[in-house]
Design a protein that fits this description.
mainly beta, about 90 residues, 7-stranded antiparallel sheet
């Protein structure tokens, strides 16, 4: 998966960076990974790309020295996002 965001430790958070890696643990509500992130990237999309294009599967929400994580987008969260933003 890839995380795209504006880490505060790089270019004062003014430049978009991409980092990729593997999901280390997935639960019903959470994704955990060892992808490099930094403060300022909360809210960044966690996505993968396949033959149909990019698909967002989560939102980066936290990090620590050992692992980073985010909220997994399930059917209900997707429906909630559609009602806020509008249908694609």
């Amino acid at each position: 998966v890839t995380i795209s965001g504006y880490p505060g430790d790089r270019d004062s958070g003014q430049v978009q960076y991409f980092a990729s890696g593997r999901i280390r643990r997935a639960t019903t509500y959470e994704l955990r990974y060892k992808i490099d992130t930094f403060g300022g990237q909360s809210g960044s999309g966690i996505f993968f790309t396949d033959t149909t294009g990019a698909q967002v599967i989560g939102v980066h929400t936290w990090g620590s020295r050992r692992t980073n994580g985010g909220v997994r987008i399930d059917a209900q969260k997707y429906a909630d996002l559609q009602s806020i933003v509008g249908s694609p």
